[in-house]
Specification:
alpha/beta, Rossmann fold, 5-stranded parallel β-sheet, 4-stranded parallel β-sheet, globular
């Protein structure tokens, strides 16, 4: 049976508790199947106008999700495990994605395409994204050649406590020609495991570029520069502190591989 002929057998009312699934379904032309979204969804912008918000990220009321009568719920990671457990007990079919790497994001798109009977379209989308990644890698190689090495990058996911090393961002930094100074943390799944207990650890690793993406709040470079001992950090001394908005880089989906990666490239290009 072809993907097209099996499409009518796929779920018709999908509740998306994760933002990246929303963006993929819109990209596949399947937005009409979305019955509800997370309140954190911002991509595409029209989704917030068109779809009811039925949950937070890690919390949500079961009755609010069930009210949209989903025949499939899409979720992400152990952070949504409690909601998913309750939905399964209520008799709802749930698929939990757990993509943590660039390859994992691409696999998620392929899997979601298969779930909605759009396998060929999902493969075409992934092929296009892969071409973009390949082109970015070539630009990254050019940056390395221009500087004679990789620029050292500290990416700050949160400020209190300091959190860094999120895997797909670390991989994208390397792809763009940088060196993630906390790449040693990227095999740790949870944010708790990626805490930097002593801020002077950042000073010791001497990043030349600091990029902040504080989930849900505005990055404040002046506060970062004022941290005790951080005046000696090359990025601070040279004024190379940048922000990438969290919806563009912290959700492991299409945005991270396109606009998020482009943001990383602009930060590195600003260094000459």
């Amino acid at each position: 049976m072809s993907a097209d002929s099996s499409a009518h057998l796929s779920a018709r009312r999908i509740a998306c508790l994760c933002t990246e699934a929303v963006e993929v379904l819109y990209a596949l032309g399947e937005s009409e199947r979305i019955a509800g979204i997370s309140g954190f969804t911002v991509r595409p912008p029209r989704a917030r106008r068109e779809k009811p918000k039925i949950s937070g990220f890690s919390t949500g009321k079961l009755e609010r999700i069930l009210a949209v009568e989903p025949d499939l719920v899409l979720a992400f990671s152990d952070l949504q495990a409690d909601m998913c457990r309750d939905l399964v007990r209520a008799g709802v079919e749930v698929h939990v994605f757990n993509q943590r790497s660039v390859d994992g994001i691409l696999r998620m798109i392929v899997t979601l395409g298969a779930l909605v009977g759009r396998a060929a379209e999902a493969r075409a989308l992934v092929d296009g994204l892969q071409r973009g990644l390949d082109a970015a890698r070539l630009r990254g190689d050019a940056r390395i050649a221009r500087h004679g090495r990789r620029l050292r990058v500290y990416f700050e996911e949160w400020d209190a406590p300091l959190i860094s090393g999120i895997r797909w961002v670390s991989e994208l930094i390397e792809l763009a020609g940088g060196e993630d100074v906390f790449a040693d943390l990227r095999d740790r799944h949870s944010a708790r495991e990626r805490r930097i207990e002593d801020p002077l650890q950042v000073v010791a690793r001497a990043p030349e570029v600091i990029i902040g993406s504080w989930c849900g709040k505005k990055f404040q470079p002046e506060r970062v520069a004022a941290r005790a001992g951080w005046g000696a950090v090359p990025a601070v001394a040279n004024g190379r502190l940048y922000e990438i908005k969290s919806p563009l880089i912290l959700a492991p989906g299409i945005a991270a591989l396109t606009d998020g990666l482009a943001g990383l490239e602009r930060c590195l290009d600003d260094c000459g």
